[in-house]
Each structure stands twice: as structure tokens, then as C-alpha cells.
Design brief:
alpha/beta; Hemocyanin, N-terminal domain; Rossmann fold; 3 domains; seven-stranded mixed beta sheet; five-stranded parallel beta sheet; 43% helix
């Protein structure tokens, strides 16, 4: 059964503040110095603000001047997070107008440092914390959230924050940052977004000994007790926010894969570290093939790291190859893995279930260098969280075997990258097709300036989420992420490829997210997963749902 599209209208109804300081203390309604003369009189704000009425453009100018005056990225993060706490409309105007400059602050790589320092820089609570002490009360805890029109939840248990490991409750910076990008990149209304941290403790001894740590001071609970809490959360979220999209984020490997398998067919959910990363990397690979002039079926892809990201990327490559007509078994043979124990091969007895599909017949091989020598891969992808592992010798071997070696150092944050853009370009004489998880500056080699691509999941998950929300999709499927990857790759322009980019400029992110949302929506309708009827003008309808950070006139009738 389908219902009217009006359920996803971006014109969100809210209970207005009363008068005076209530308006200034509510970030959803606050306009700060931009409240008009008429609004100041009508809302009881006369005298509570400086007399000059500023335009939003003037406010943006002041924010960015202060932002650029800060001496460190962490200070910039604190400043811009404070703006989000005071005035959400202005925050999103600033971010959307300056996305390339602010993306590395509100998300990778600075958000990693912010999570490490979360208890020390804590100013104001944002999101919902559910702890293992709340067992049996999770629905009541979630019901304390002030709205019921939540469309997207990003949830973490803080066990594997970026490449930084177990940060416990301090991992809240990740759901907050991800949901900021849902709004800034795809226009999901900010009041429809709910960040959640499930605090089951931490095994990080440094945090447990830190007097300013904000989470439970206990070791992580695991097993049946853990699973029961996650189940209680999912059931409560679906009850309170019917049809909500739940994005699992930065769970440890031991839980990420099995939770995805457990819930993917019974809830509207996905794991961004597996499916989102897989999709954005596949898009980069498809773009790289436009540079190298080769076919996907002719590649041998070697991964360093066999966790969520690596397996997710490989599964997307395989799905794409199967779509192109390659048998499943043959498609899997195109992907090889090196983990902490060496090459992933069938004879090993220590493989976890998620690695078995990519365990091939081969002699033992103990390290990445040996694997590169033996396998002669055409593409080398780093998802290990181990910095500087793409050594000069390894990169030069890639260049010897390939006219245009594809080298993706995807680990986050920047300090965890397997190699830098400059290293990849210089060690290959500018021939490498390079992408990374964190941003790197352009590099000039042999008189040519090369622009490294950033395989940022923000190219994928906001658009996927927008397509899901606009159709009321009941499920999120792997096919949606393949559609998203192909769409993203199709949007990169020839002049961008000539610069060495494998992703479009971030300045085009709204165009990208819209196109991905349309592609995802088409897949939803084709598979009859929608609960909302299909509009006649699908692209126009989706565009109309995208939030625009503009001040309303509160005195208009």
C-alpha cells in the first residue's frame, strides 16, 4: 500500500517558542542578529539584541572571519559546532557556502581528533545517548527526543571510530558529523535527523582513566547482553519513528557484519562503513578506468586490510562485475586481500566468515610487498588503518607493472593514510591514479598539477538517504549502492579526469546527491519497496524536498 508523498514534505511543523530569550536559545528558530525590527517587536526581542539588523550574508562573513582566525583545526571544530548549537539555519548556510573548506573540519579528518578530545571539549549535548544501564527502558529514553518526524538515525557504539579504535561514548562526534552532511550535502531537514550513541562501555584504558570521559566507566559488554540492547534499540526506533532509516556507523568488525545481516531484511538499515565505503570506492575505480582506458573485468585488485571497508568494496566490485556478465566465482577472483596475517588464502585456518569468499588458492605469502611482487595487481587499495604501509618500493613496483597504477590510500584520518598523495605521484613520476580517504592538497609533478580525489562517503550516503526518505523505502539494498556508484562515476567531467580526479569537485555535491537520490528512488520503485506513491516529476519532486537554509519571516501571516 502506498500513501501520499506529502508525508515527506520539508515544511516541517514545529511548536514555536514563546517569547523573548526562548527564541534566541532554540537553534531551530534562532536568527540571532538577523531578526527583523518587526520580529523583535512581535517576539519580545527588543533590547535583547544589538540594534543593527544584519543580513544572513553579513552573519556568514562574521562567522567565516572568526573561523579563519583560529589557530588550529580543533578550535575551528569547536567554533563551528558552537554555531550549530546556537543557530542551525546559519550553520548550514555557512557549511553549504563553504563546503570544501569546512568538510575537513566537521568531518574527516578533524572529527577524529574531536572525538579523541570529546570529553575535554564538551559544551552542549547533541543527540541521544543510550547506555547499557538503560536496558528495558530504551523506548522511554528515545521518547525523550523532542520530535517524532525523525527520518534518519545514525547510530554508533563507538568501538571503531575511523581508524582510531575504541572511543566509547566519545564517538558521538561521528553520528553528529554524518547527519550534518545528510543536511549539508543532500538537504535532509536537520530536525529529521537523530544522532544516537549506544554506550556499552569501552576497552580503552586511557579513556577509563580520564576524569573527563563522558561515558560509562566499564569494560564493554558483549554477547547476548549486547545483542539484546541493540535489538531493543531497533524495535524502539521503528516504533517511535515509523519507517526511519537507521545507519549503523563505526561498529567493530565483530559486530558490524553480523548486525547488518541480522537487520538488513527486517529494517530500513545499512552500514556505511561496509556499503557506503564500498560504493564510493567502486565509483572511484570506475572513474579511474576512464583514465587508464581499461575494463573492470581485466583488473586484479589487491587490498591491504580485510575489515568492513575492504570487504564492502570487494563485494561492490563483484556485484558490478556480475551485472556486466561475469560469473560470481570469476568475479571474486579479481579481488585479493592481505590482512595482519598475510595473504588471505584457502589454506589458512584463522579466517573469519566475512573473508572466506575472497580466500583463493595460492601459496602462503606473509606481507604486502611479497603479495605485490607475486600477484602484480593493477589496483592497490589501502583500508588497513596502518599508516605508511604503501612504501616507496611497493608503489614503484606498482608503477613498473602498470602504465597508470591505481593507488587508493583510503584509511582515515590523514594520520592513518597508507601513503600521501605526494608520495604516490612522485614515486610514480605522476602516473599514479590516486585517491584517499582524507583530503590532500594538489601536487605538481613534471610541471603538471594533479588533484587527488577524496573517497569521501559523503558523496554516497546523503544521496542514498534522500532517495530512501523521498520514497518511504522499506529496505535498503546493495543494488541501491551499485546504482549510486555508477551515478557518481558518470558525473565526473573530462576536465576533472584530466586533473587526475576520480571524484567530482565537492562544490558539485548537491548536484551529485540529487542525481544519486533519483537513481536510488528509481530502484526503489522498480523493486516495489516504496511506501509513498511515485510523483510524475521524480527529479523535480526530490529537488523540492531538499532543505534550503533560509530564514523565515516569523511575522508573516
Amino acid at each position: 500500500m502506498t500513501t501520499s508523498n506529502k508525508q515527506t514534505s520539508p515544511r516541517i511543523q514545529r511548536t514555536l517558542p514563546k517569547t523573548g530569550v526562548d527564541w534566541l536559545h532554540n537553534p531551530v528558530f534562532n536568527k540571532g542578529t538577523a531578526f527583523t525590527e518587526a520580529e523583535r517587536d512581535a517576539l519580545g526581542l527588543r533590547g535583547l539584541l544589538p540594534p543593527h539588523v544584519q543580513t544572513m550574508a553579513e552573519q556568514v562573513q562574521r562567522v567565516m572571519a572568526n573561523f579563519r582566525s583560529k589557530s588550529s583545526d580543533l578550535e575551528r571544530y569547536i567554533q563551528i559546532a558552537g554555531l550549530q548549537d546556537r543557530n542551525e539555519t546559519l550553520f548550514y548556510r555557512v557549511v553549504m557556502d563553504n563546503l570544501e573548506e569546512l568538510m575537513p573540519i566537521i568531518y574527516t579528518p578533524t572529527v577524529g581528533k574531536a572525538c579523541q578530545e570529546y570529553g575535554h571539549i564538551f559544551r552542549r549535548s547533541r543527540g541521544c545517548y543510550i547506555s547499557s544501564n538503560d536496558r528495558g527502558l530504551v523506548e522511554k529514553v528515545l521518547a525523550n527526543w523532542p520530535t517524532r518526524d525523525v527520518k534518519v538515525i545514525v547510530v554508533t557504539d563507538g568501538e571503531r571510530i575511523l581508524g582510531l579504535g575504541d572511543l566509547g561514548a566519545s564517538g558521538m562526534g561521528i553520528p553528529v558529523g554524518k547527519l550534518s552532511l545528510y543536511t549539508a550535502c543532500a538537504g535532509i531537514h536537520p530536525t529529521q535527523c537523530l544522532p544516537v550513541t549506544i554506550d556499552v562501555g569501552t576497552d580503552n584504558e586511557t579513556l577509563l582513566a580520564d576524569p573527563l570521559y563522558i561515558g560509562l566507566r566499564q569494560k564493554r559488554i558483549r554477547g547476548g547482553e549486547y545483542d539484546a540492547l541493540i535489538e531493543e534499540f531497533v524495535v524502539a526506533a521503528e516504533k517511535l519513528f515509523p519507517g526511519v532509516l537507521i545507519q549503523f556507523e563505526d561498529f567493530g568488525n565483530r559486530n558490524a557484519f553480523r548486525l547488518l545481516e541480522k537487520y538488513r531484511d527486517r529494517a530500513c538499515t545499512f552500514n556505511d562503513d561496509i556499503q557506503g565505503t564500498g560504493s564510493v570506492a567502486l565509483a572511484g575505480i570506475l572513474s579511474a578506468l576512464r583514465i587508464t582506458g581499461q575494463k573492470l573485468a581485466d583488473q586484479r585488485v589487491l587490498f591491504l586490510g580485510a575489515g568492513e571497508a575492504g570487504i564492502g568494496i570487494a563485494e561492490n566490485i563483484v556485484a558490478c562485475l556480475v551485472e556486466e556478465g561475469l560469473p560470481l566465482a570469476e568475479a571474486r577472483k579479481r579481488c585479493w586481500f592481505v590482512d595482519s596475517k598475510g595473504l588471505v588464502i584457502k589454506s589458512r585456518k584463522d579466517l573469519t566468515e566475512h573473508k572466506l569468499h575472497f580466500a583463493h588458492d595460492h601459496a602462503p605469502c606473509g606481507d604486502l610487498l611479497s603479495a605485490v611482487k607475486l600477484l602484480k595487481p593493477t589496483m592497490l587499495l589501502g583500508v588497513s588503518g596502518q599508516p605508511k604501509t604503501f612504501t616507496e618500493e611497493i608503489v614503484k613496483l606498482m608503477a613498473e607493472a602498470n602504465p597508470r597504477p591505481v593507488i587508493f590510500a583510503l584509511s582515515n584520518p590523514t594520520s592513518k593514510a597508507e601513503c600521501t598523495a605526494e608520495e604516490a605521484y612522485r614515486w610514480t613520476g605522476g602516473r599514479a591514479v590516486f585517491a584517499s580517504g582524507s583530503p590532500f592538497a594538489p601536487v605538481t609533478v613534471g610541471g603538471k598539477t594533479l588533484v587527488p580525489g577524496q573517497g569521501n562517503n559523503a558523496y554516497i550516503f546523503p544521496g542514498v538517504g534522500l532517495g530512501v526518505v523521498c520514497t518511504g523505502a522499506r529496505r535498503v539494498t546493495d543494488a541501491m549502492f551499485i546504482k549510486a556508484a555508477r551515478t557518481l562515476a558518470s558525473l565526473i567531467r573530462d576536465n576533472e579526469l584530466a586533473e587526475g580526479r576520480v571524484y567530482p569537485s565537492l562544490s558539485r555535491i548537491h548536484e551529485v546527491s540529487h542525481a544519486i537520490a533519483v537513481a536510488v528512488a528509481q530502484e526503489v520503485y522498480a523493486k516495489k519497496l516504496n511506501t509513498l506513491s511515485r510523483p510524475e516529476d521524480l527529479p523535480g519532486y526530490i529537488r523540492s524536498q531538499m532543505f534550503k537554509p533560509e530564514y523565515p519571516n516569523y511575522t508573516a501571516k
